[in-house]
Specification:
14 helices; 15 strands; 17% strand; 2 domains; seven-stranded parallel beta sheet
């Protein structure tokens, strides 16, 4: 039996390790960071943009050549078709504003090495080599700032096109970075140079690294990168893909069931199944699915970074625009339950997502599906002043069930939700408490 259990543990450990990018242990002092992280914690929603030459043929971003679906030289030919001919950065910013998002992260360079801005570190960039001939980032960042949206720069540490980067195609590498340190340092110099360019030119509120998994913190010189960024602007937020030297966790596509380890976190997710524009990918999530996933993330104290992939000419696919607009309708109606709130009740008190006002006297309940009948809260000590529907302000009745007069254990709260108060996507109920929330954690019984 003992041997069996040991084997089982080993199998489970191996299984859960498979396909997981390993995240280094956190090296950042959370307490020190609290002030600079505040806007991020309040923001809840960000829009992610993957724009690059991969949109020309609709191949997968960078991975298409890395995984040998297309030759590197053919992949690179796409740069000749990147026109940005209908690019309207003001329109992008307005669309993002309409979603309610408070920040936006756009690719400055993906693993393919093609910079979207005018890099001086090499000449592989949209301004230098594409018919678009322009730095597409500056006008967009300006438009975002005009709309009061925080600015984020995605930057891939990996650069598979750079001749001195060890990695190139799947299952092969140009050299061993640990052995040929001169060559690795040449690459590092280039990589650090581009990070410096981005931080100095754009002064982003947030820098979103990707690809740290190919090398260790020591190899990337992660503490140096962090310092370089913070020396430029100590308020810059750094995402968690810097081998332990970032400020927040970034689960990707896979949905956390329990709260991620770091205090701050953000789920990044595509609207269909691709990061960049791929017309053959029609598996779009519905607005309902995106809204419920979003509610789930904020309920656990996280953010959602929702991705779109514009076409090479700068237009946004209609399906993506539809999702953003529907999401915007819902967030503007329910904004008080979303923005500037904190994560809600732990699981078990209410069967759905919830959030709390910062002073925790207002509880917001997010209803999954169409609710008609009673909704229940368990273990709530506080008295309820009023229950209303967010958006319409309609008052709802509630009653306390099973409160035993001689016991301090709270009764169950049943809220009567009639069908006609339902939102098109997700109804939110506001429960106004008489004081900050206090929850019963016991196992029932006498106290
Ligand atoms: C991944 C991929 C990449 C994508 C990113 C977004 O790690 O390498 O293609 O840009 O995630 O989170």
């Amino acid at each position: 039996m003992k041997v069996f259990i040991v084997k089982l543990i080993v199998v489970v450990a191996l299984f859960t390790g498979i396909n997981c990018k390993s995240y280094a242990q956190q090296k950042v002092d959370v307490k020190e960071n609290e002030q600079k992280m505040q806007w991020f914690a309040d923001a809840k929603l960000g829009i992610f943009i993957h724009w690059g030459i991969y949109a020309v043929q609709g191949t997968s971003e960078s991975w298409a050549f890395h995984n040998k679906h297309i030759l590197h030289k053919d992949y690179m030919q796409q740069i000749k078709g990147f026109t940005a001919s209908k690019y309207n950065p003001e329109y992008w910013a307005e669309l993002i504003k309409r979603t309610g998002a408070r920040y936006c992260v756009i690719t400055t360079k993906h693993h393919d090495g093609v910079a979207l801005y005018d890099t001086k570190m090499n000449n592989l960039s949209i301004p230098a080599r594409s018919p678009a001939k322009l730095d597409v980032l500056t006008p967009f960042y300006n438009a975002l700032r005009k709309n009061n949206i925080k600015v984020g720069s995605y930057f891939s540490l990996i650069d598979w096109s750079y001749p001195d980067y060890p990695g190139f195609l799947k299952d092969s590498s140009r050299y061993d970075s640990k052995k040929d340190t001169i060559r690795w340092n040449k690459f590092l110099n280039f990589c650090h140079g581009q990070i410096k360019e981005i931080t100095h030119q754009f002064n982003p509120d947030l820098i979103w690294f990707d690809g740290d998994w190919e090398h260790s913190a020591e190899e990337w010189r992660a503490p140096f990168i962090r310092k370089m960024i913070l020396d430029n602007n100590p308020n810059t937020i750094i995402n968690g893909r810097l081998q332990g030297y970032g400020d927040y966790d970034t689960p990707e596509q896979n949905f956390p069931v329990s709260r991620p380890n770091l205090k701050y976190w953000e789920l990044c997710m595509t609207t269909n199944e691709s990061w960049g524009y791929q017309p053959s990918d029609t598996i779009y999530k519905t607005p309902y699915e995106i809204i419920t996933i979003f509610a789930d993330a904020i309920s656990m104290g996280g953010n959602l970074l929702l991705d779109i992939g514009p076409k090479e000419d700068g237009t946004i696919p209609a399906e993506q625009e539809y999702i953003l607009n529907e999401l915007g309708k819902w967030t503007s109606k329910h904004s008080e339950a979303i923005f500037n709130t904190v994560g809600g009740m732990p699981q078990g008190h209410f069967y759905g997502p919830s959030t709390l006002s910062k002073d925790s006297t207002t509880l917001y309940l997010f209803m999954q599906g169409k609710v008609n009948g009673n909704v229940m809260i368990k273990g709530l000590y506080d008295d309820i002043k009023e229950v209303t529907v967010v958006g319409s302000g309609k008052k709802l009745n509630h009653k306390i069930v099973g409160k035993i007069s001689w016991s301090s254990v709270p009764g169950l709260v049943y809220i009567d939700v009639p069908q006609n108060v339902n939102d098109e996507y997700m109804t939110v109920i506001k429960v106004q408490l008489n004081k900050p929330i206090k929850l019963y954690k016991g196992k029932g019984g006498f106290n």
